[in-house]
Design brief:
alpha+beta; 30% helix; 7-stranded mixed β-sheet; Aminopeptidase; globular
């Protein structure tokens, strides 16, 4: 299956909110309540669209994956853990519909995020994930992202990863 990310539009906000909430509910059902258990609202999605680039991947039934790329550093990221970078992008809120996980969709979205970042032009992608069973640390490591640190931010254990772009 070929995956193509496209920039989300305001018309996608309701479906994006539902998608993020479905992923959160799935993680909560499998791993219990945690910081990943937050519901996403249409208002929250619209706010994100004003702050950063939001991308979606669709099939004929709707959104199957999403991610956000931001130039502004998120508050939970401590830059001192990462390699020096003139133009980093921050990968946020990557999610694949629960019924579509483990089919290579996330990996293909990450590859497209790298191409988008290089075209910006960015020289690195930085991200964090929960250091818990509900986190995507093993996924990012398997995709070749380099682990650069572990911290606890507001009682949430996190793993930092980076991708240096040639």
């Amino acid at each position: 299956m070929k995956i193509r990310l496209r920039e989300a539009t305001v018309e996608d906000a309701v479906e994006l909110a539902a998608s993020h909430t479905a992923v959160a509910e799935h993680l909560t059902g499998v791993h219990g309540h945690g910081p990943w258990s937050t519901r996403t609202t249409e208002r929250g999605v619209r706010y994100a669209m004003r702050q950063m680039a939001v991308f979606v991947a669709r099939d004929r039934r709707g959104i199957i994956a999403t991610l956000r790329l931001a130039t502004k550093k998120p508050w939970a990221i401590d830059k001192s853990y990462f390699a020096p970078s003139r133009q980093p992008l921050y990968l946020l809120a990557m999610a694949v519909e629960p019924g579509r996980q483990r089919q290579g969709i996330g990996r293909r979205c990450l590859e497209q995020a790298k191409r988008i970042a290089k075209a910006c032009p960015a020289d690195a992608i930085r991200l964090d994930t929960y250091d818990a069973a509900a986190g995507a640390g093993p996924f990012y490591a398997k995709c070749g992202c380099k682990e650069v640190g572990r911290i606890t931010y507001r009682h949430a254990p996190l793993i930092y990863f980076e991708i240096l772009l040639a």
